[in-house]
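Hello again,

I reread your note about wanting to compare the complex against the isolated chains. To keep things tidy I'm splitting this into two emails, and this first one only covers the full assembly. Below are the input lines as submitted, including protein chains and any nucleic acid or small-molecule components. They are followed by the predicted structure of everything together. The single-chain runs will come separately.
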Amino acid sequence: MTSSSPAAPPSPATQRPAAPAPALSQRGRGIVVSATRWGSRTLALAYLSLIVLIPVAALATHALDHGLGVWWNAVSQRESLSALRLTITCAAAAAVVNTIAGTATAWVLARDHFVGSAALNAIIDLPFALPTVVAGVTFYTLYGPHSPLKINVTGTWTGVTLAIMFVTLPFNVRSVQPVLEARSFSAESAAATLGASPLRVFATITLPALLPAILAGAGLSFARALGEYGSVVFISNNLPYRSEVASSYVYSLATSGQVDAAAAVSLALLVLALVVLGAADLTSRRVSRGLS
Amino acid sequence: MRRHLLRGLVLVYVGALIAFPLGFIFEQVASPGWSALSAALSNREMTSAIWLTVRVALVAVPLNIAFGVGASLWIVRHPSRFTRLLDALIDVPLAISPIIIGVSLELAYAQNGWIGRPLAAWGIHVLFDYWAIVTASIFVSLPLVSRQVMPLLRTLGTHQEQTAQTLGAGRLRVFLTITMRSIMWATAYGVSLTMARVIGEYGAVLVVSGNIAYVTETLTLNIGNNFENFSAYQGFVGASVLALASIVVLMVLSYARHRERLRHEYRP
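Full-complex prediction:
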């Protein structure tokens, strides 16, 4: 299924030399090719359905099985609302901090070359590669009750935000960095030559060009933070009404047999994340249009 | 001067947020000395958990490579309204919390679930078993290969393949020597992300595995369990094993990115 796509426009390359093989065997080969193609497509669809689509459909069905009223009742429980509020607030706070820090990091990586900038570039991806539970236990030990730094933020919004900041920084950096690398300095240099201060150059030239990428990165960060579990569950201490994040609340519902309520809160969280990701996707499409 | 200030601020931020915690893991592991470390490394429950994680990755990662490359070729080379829908659906796992992934799988694969019931009629019980962990690992890492491969395939086009075919190369040869070769480093990048996600998954596996020591306890679960049972040192030793694995992944990532960039620069 690599080439000779039926949708491809006719090109000079398709004028092949006369085939030495007889016509019948060529047709036979054609049947084998299309059988392989449709066979592998069916397999791929079955794989996607069995692992992703049917389970997610089952979740949505369980959530809405007894009507929207029952769904809303489960979502609007006090514990649920306070978990959702905590999650959204911490995700937004982390997204704001990382938008500033991530943009600065992307700028340094794209425009400032120094000894160690390659190492900086590599370590930015660490939160992608490091398992969340490893981040979780590390942050709990560093900033928990036995902290060697004498900082204890367990059970607080600060602790949750800190863990989220660690996990989501790469999204902010990696969204902005390629845009900065693709842009030339010329407009900035011209403005500086004409006497604009560095701050003015940044605010009037660099920032407007980067804004879609920055927003897309913030959206990705925020959506990821909404569902974060492994990295926050230790430092948050999971105190209901105080420091319990949404995914942790869903887990406690699911393990205490309230599967339908777990499905209801899950659906709310999932829809929220999809909306944010959709918005981020739209803005990043604008970014790639701007790049090309 | 201003540039140095910004550089310094960024280094402090990234250092404090990322590098310092990473170093702290290894400091914690090394500080009690060699005998404590070797005892912890030979802990039977942990080695069994490591082995389970490896067994899960050996199945989940190849399946997701095959799916990721195949689906990318289908979506990019044979575009239709259906493949556009498929393109959107493949990315769904990235929007879902690991815990919610676990709950979804639990609902579908339970004895009375949509998939679990027919399977139970065949005598197959997926939930709280090795295959549940494999399924959860596949779910969380499903889009990671195709997201790297698809943009590249879009920019590459099919001219080289058409030329090779005109010159008489068979389909398999075209696929192996042209298509796979040109997407090799993008695939490697996606595979390392997949690998990292599979060996590091916690939330989804926690829900569907049952977390039974020696049976369905992966290394991430083992770390969490040790931590909750006040065996923090044992937990840190497990965490350092995973951290080392993710550093290896990171090196592959940056090498793959480097190769990909070289390829782009030399493209006429």
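For quick reference: Chain B is about 80% helix and 0% strand.

B.
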